[in-house]
Amino acid sequence: MARVNASASANIEQLVNQLSNVSANIGGGTSSNNDTTTCSPNTPDTLREVLCSLVGEQIEVTTPFGVVDGTLLSVQSDYIVLVDDTGAQVLVRYENIETVNEL
After folding, report:
1. Measured between alpha carbons, how far apart are the two ends of the chain, in Å?
2. In what order do the strands lie in the sheet with 89-93?
3. Pfam families in the record, alphabetically (predicted)?
4. What is the CATH number of the domain that holds 61?
5. Per-residue pLDDT tens for 15-31?
6. Alpha-carbon distance 97 to 60, whole Å?
7. Are 73 and 17 in contact, with CB atoms under 8 Å apart?
8. What residues make up the domain containing 46?
């Protein structure tokens, strides 16, 4: 039983850290990841700015490798981070993004 509790505690701690990162990104600030840059609050003109406006939203991204959908967690300098319906984090480089749709 103690083993299950230790495992659950580790999972909870990981989720809390992920939520902290999401909260920082939704607020327009930076997370603990040094690669994150601040998103502009102005009207989006570039793909990156459009993606910044969608942080925290459910999106669908079309790539040459297929379609990926999930919650947009963060917009990095050259890739985005999504969480899919299984809870897995998916990284997509800007150069592979063909289309983006809000769900």
Report:
1. 41
2. 89-93, 79-83, 66-75, 58-63, 99-102
3. DUF2642 (PF10842)
4. 2.30.30.100
5. 556 655 655 555 544 44
6. 10
7. no
8. 2-102
